[in-house]
Design goal:
Layout lengths: L10 H10 L4 E4 L22 H4 L4 E5 L7 E6 L2 H6 L10 E4 L2 E9 L6 E4 L6 E6 L4 E4 L18 E2 L2 H20 L4 H5 L23 H14 L9 H15 L4 H12 L9 H13 L25 H7 L34 H12 L5 H15 L4 E3 L8 E5 L7 H13 L6 E2 L5 H10 L2 E7 L1 H10 L3 H15 L4 E3 L11 E3 L2 E8 L1 H7 L2 H5 L2 H4 E5 L16 H12 L15 E3 L3 H24 L2 H25 L8 H25 L4 H15 L4 E3 H8 L3 H13 L3 E7 L4 E7 L2
Parallel strand pairs: 5-9, 10-18, 11-16, 11-17, 12-13, 13-16
Antiparallel strand pairs: 1-2, 2-8, 3-5, 3-7, 4-5, 6-7, 14-15, 19-21, 20-21
Helix pairs in contact: 7-8, 7-9, 8-9, 11-12, 12-13, 14-16, 15-17, 21-22, 21-23, 22-23, 24-26
Length: about 750
């Protein structure tokens, strides 16, 4: 949070600190708010250049958006917006302002956010502005034209999805307009005929029937609520409760506090088990802040067509509430309920963690010949996991050890994040903790006996998996066995094998093995087997796809940023235990949950348990294995988020819990989908998967017979068997494709 009265901080000192945090600055004339430098948007001042601009009375501006690592500013320009901001905006530790406008700027990291302005539709004065790429904001210790001093920005901006932040700002502006002008359209009432987007943020009168009182709305909402199914633990209870909250605050536009009371009194008694008030409040808050495709008040008018919200699919529940079953068009199927739905590659907004991880990631992106955000993120996450190894744990005794895998094609820059990590560890005299190849299980044990916390960075991990699958040599089985047991021993003791001449084997106290592997996507999935999917190795991994190679940039030789070296050195010297951490039993520092974070993590655990139960009911051994580890991944990631955001006084807060849950559950679903799509039980099944992939990648998911036969490289008899098998399973359909000369057949992937 910003602090007023920074007499000891000069503009030059502040500018240096901002640049060290990865943000670009622009000089602004003293007591002014706008830059006068031509093309200031392109200004990228290095730390050694700052004295030329700020060693004199001057104001400091932060360049926003993409240049500064997606730093954005929500500028609250009016008293009403500042008064109710906490009810609408995501929480953030980074706020600033000045004496006459306390906490008027809320700061976030939001990738791809766009600048949006909201003005009063009558007087055209600014209400709230989301500022991003192309903009700048004045920060402390600058002086406002009134003579008031701006706060120096000291807190860590929260990382949020751009879509969510935009929706929250929209909702805040709409509420300010309602407070000023009521629910009616102020532009129409004034007769000025304006139809701009800001004017339309107010509720339109046609959403509410004539003479519709709040009592009438509430009675209709309760009738609707009573028809919704209750929340049953392990049977989609979270989705059902979120649906109920969405219906009240978004569908019927009921105020959040009143909606909470209605849920407690009318919905909660039917739930098994009932929710706590805190849990229900979180659901209401989510329903208020998350974006929706329907307009607000979409249930106020009975005759209004009810569109389906892609943000939360409530179509089935709406059908139950209205006493009917929703129809499905012939070209659609209801989405499958198992864990094999494809959520797509990881969203870019989840590839951001405040603090050290983002700093290392940004340095990697700035210097890589082919910068790739997923690769840079995975490398930085692995480095943080290693640095925190045997030194921190959460209050459930989860540790920072991760098995992390990036999937990327050849020559796409897979090696650069590894080189950055190696360079950092050399700089802090930790190079002895680096490993590269797994020669044998025994060799891995010996390495960790000498250095109990290690970072193995290995390329083409699919080769290792192929060897484990196909080789008869027990050496590779030993590697897999060691990797499996070493992961689970991070909070206990790993017993080494007994050596000749010794009565008993040695032990490794709380070993921390962090793996950062890279592989080519198709090679990796081809190397997996059904046995490997169910023995726990696949479930222990977090797999992130890097996507296509990005445009290259000219190589750059750059010194390691001082903040990265300072934080890395801190971790190298941090010893929370007793005695020599290398040989004696360490006592890691406990990073505790905030109350809100614990509530979110409990909710996440219940959801993972529900997914596990559904997989168990389906008889899906891969699903049970992977979902059985997801809650552990969430806790580890939340711990890593917290020590990255604040390495000196970490705390697992709601932001950490929310990000970790989103990241881990998304990756679990993606991993299960990719495994189902690529891992074959036998050679014939492999050909079936191969054909489905070709249809999936084709335009319109359709390929004509002659082309598909050539691409499959099968004899005609085997090809017919594959087609018939997939057709009987309803995976594909045979369609006619008429042309100018004749009608041919083609194969189309079913929805």
């Amino acid at each position: 949070m910003g602090q007023a009265g920074h007499d000891a901080v000069s503009p030059l000192d502040a500018a240096r600190e901002y640049v060290r945090r990865g943000w670009y600055v622009v000089p602004i004339p003293y007591k002014q708010k706008r830059p006068v430098t031509k093309e200031w948007e392109q200004l990228r001042l290095a730390e050694d250049e700052l004295s030329q601009y700020f060693d004199q009375p001057a104001n400091v501006g932060l360049i926003l958006g993409e240049p500064s690592g997606n730093l954005v500013d929500v500028d609250l320009d009016c008293v009403e917006a500042r008064a109710i901001a906490s009810n609408y905006l995501p929480a953030t530790a980074a706020k600033s302002g000045r004496t006459g406008a306390t906490d008027s700027h809320w700061w976030y990291i939001a990738a791809d956010a766009k600048t949006v302005q909201h003005r009063d539709p009558l007087n055209r004065k600014m209400i709230v502005e989301l500022r991003s790429t192309g903009g700048q904001t004045v920060v402390g210790p600058s002086i406002h034209p009134s003579g008031q001093q701006y706060d120096v920005l000291t807190g860590e901006p929260a990382v949020v999805p751009a879509e969510m932040l935009t929706a929250c700002v929209d909702a805040l502006a709409k509420r300010v307009i309602e407070l000023r002008h009521g629910d009616s359209d102020p532009v129409a009432a004034s007769g000025n005929g304006r139809t701009d987007a800001v004017a339309r943020t107010g509720s339109h009168p046609d959403r509410i029937s004539k003479h519709q009182s709040s009592t009438d709305v509430e009675s209709r909402a309760l009738a609707y609520l009573d028809k919704l199914p209750p929340a049953i633990s392990g049977n989609g209870g979270h989705a059902a409760t979120y649906t109920a909250a969405t219906v009240l605050v978004h569908g019927f536009e009921i105020e959040p506090e009143r909606a909470l009371a209605l849920l407690l009194n009318h919905f909660n008694p039917r739930c098994e088990p009932p929710w706590t008030e805190k849990e229900l409040r979180h659901k209401v808050t989510s329903a208020v802040t998350k974006p929706h495709n329907q307009p607000r008040g979409w249930l106020l008018n009975q005759e209004r067509e009810q569109p389906i919200d892609t943000g939360v699919d409530i179509s089935a529940l709406v059908g139950q509430a209205e006493g009917k079953v929703p129809t499905v068009r012939a070209t659609e199927r209801e989405p499958p309920t198992d864990s094999a739905d494809d959520p797509g590659p990881i969203p870019t907004e989840l590839l951001r963690v405040p603090g050290f991880i983002s700093e290392v990631m940004d340095f990697s992106l700035a210097t890589a010949p082919y910068p790739n955000q997923p690769l840079a993120f995975c490398g930085a996450l692995a480095l943080q996991a290693f640095l925190g190894g045997r030194k921190v744990r959460d209050q459930a005794d989860n540790r920072t050890n991760l098995y992390l895998l990036s999937l990327a094609h050849s020559s796409s820059g897979k090696d650069w994040p590894r080189r950055v990590n190696t360079r950092i560890l050399h700089a802090i005299d930790q190079a002895n903790a680096l490993g590269e190849h797994f020669a044998s299980g025994e060799g891995l044990q010996d390495a960790l006996y000498l250095t109990s916390c290690m970072l193995f960075q290995t390329d083409e991990i699919d080769g290792l998996l192929q060897s484990i699958n196909k080789a008869k040599d027990a050496r590779y089985e030993g590697i897999l066995g060691t990797l499996l047991t070493m992961y689970s021993a991070a909070a206990s003791v790993f017993p080494m094998r007994r050596k000749a001449g010794k009565e008993r084997g040695e032990t490794i106290e709380q070993p921390c093995l962090v793996i950062y592997g890279t592989a080519i996507p198709t090679h990796y999935y081809a190397a997996l087997s059904e046995r490997m999917l169910t023995n726990g190795f696949f479930a222990r991994m977090l797999i992130v796809e890097a996507g296509k190679r990005r445009e290259g940039q000219e190589p750059k030789i750059a010194d390691l940023p001082p903040r990265i070296l300072e934080t890395s050195t801190y971790w190298a010297n941090f010893n929370p235990g007793k005695g020599n951490m290398g040989k004696f039993f360490p006592i890691p520092h406990i990073v505790r949950y905030t109350d809100e974070a614990q509530s979110l993590l409990i909710e996440a655990r219940r959801q993972c348990e529900a997914e596990y139960a559904q997989a168990e009911e389906r008889g899906d051994p891969v699903g049970t294995t992977v979902w059985g580890r997801t809650n552990e991944h969430i806790r580890k990631l939340a711990l890593l988020y917290s020590i990255s955001a604040n390495h000196r006084e970490p705390s697992i807060d709601a932001d950490a819990a929310h990000w970790a849950t989103q990241f881990a559950t998304h990756q679990t679903r993606r991993m299960l989908f990719m495994a189902q799509s690529h891992v074959a039980d036998n050679p014939f099944h492999a050909e079936c998967l191969k054909l489905l992939k070709k249809l999936r990648d084709a335009p319109d998911h359709t390929i004509v017979h002659s082309v598909l036969l050539k691409r499959m490289k099968l004899d005609a008899q085997t090809f017919v068997k594959v087609i018939e098998t997939l057709r009987q399973r309803d995976d594909i359909e045979i369609v006619s494709l008429p042309s100018a000369t004749k009608t041919g057949i083609a194969y189309r992937l079913m929805a």
